[in-house]
Design a protein that fits this description.
Helix content: under 10%
Strand content: over 45%
CATH topology: Porin
Number of strands: 10
Shape: elongated
Distance between the termini: 30 Å
CATH architecture: Beta Barrel
């Protein structure tokens, strides 16, 4: 937990160079994961993501930024048995805090990469008698994203996310792709 506080203070200390850019995001994402045992396959599922972001300038020219925020992220998954065809939908809800480096390539285009510290706040599954066991929290998925502004206030955030590790007992290695509408508040 100490490293989370140190990273936050480090990123916020760069606000002295230029104006802070902050705002809101809302969008959808699709993800899937690997299920164990091998008889289970993972089907792609849609979830929501919303929250607030801040871009913290790290140089005088405004080309390099730290990107952080706080997001509510749904990571639903579905397993299907190859032998019986039975499907089970899993719901994982997280609070995500991104720690990214953002490069402002042009006035209306930026590229960023980094990782989230994702804290599980809820998990469930649909089948009768099903219980989600051994949920790992926090997890740290890595991501690569592209920001496009089409007006001074509105834009899109397109991102790809990967996590290689255990999510819960029998579920591991997830991949996601998402698209969020962004609204700048400054």
């Amino acid at each position: 937990m100490k490293w989370l506080i140190v990273c936050s203070v480090f990123l916020y200390s760069f606000c002295t160079y230029a104006a802070l850019d902050y705002g809101l995001e809302l969008g959808t994402r699709q993800q899937q994961a690997t299920f164990l045992p091998a008889d289970l396959t993972g089907n792609a599922q849609w979830g929501w993501q919303f929250g607030g972001f801040a871009h913290l300038p790290m140089d005088e020219k405004g080309m390099l930024h730290g990107r952080t925020g706080l997001f509510f992220t749904q990571r639903p998954l579905e397993s299907e048995s190859e032998s019986t065809g039975e499907k089970n939908r899993y719901t994982f809800n997280y609070l995500d805090v991104p720690f990214d480096l953002l490069f402002q390539v042009a006035e209306k285009f930026a590229i960023y990469f980094g990782f989230d510290v994702s804290i599980n706040i809820a998990s469930d599954c649909d089948l009768a008698g099903c219980k989600v066991n051994g949920v790992q929290t926090p997890i740290t998925p890595g991501h690569l994203g592209f920001l496009f502004k089409f007006t001074p206030k509105f834009g899109f955030n397109f991102y790809m996310e990967s996590y290689y590790g255990q999510i819960s007992k029998g579920i591991q290695d997830s991949n996601a792709v998402g698209l969020n509408l962004t609204y700048s508040l400054n």
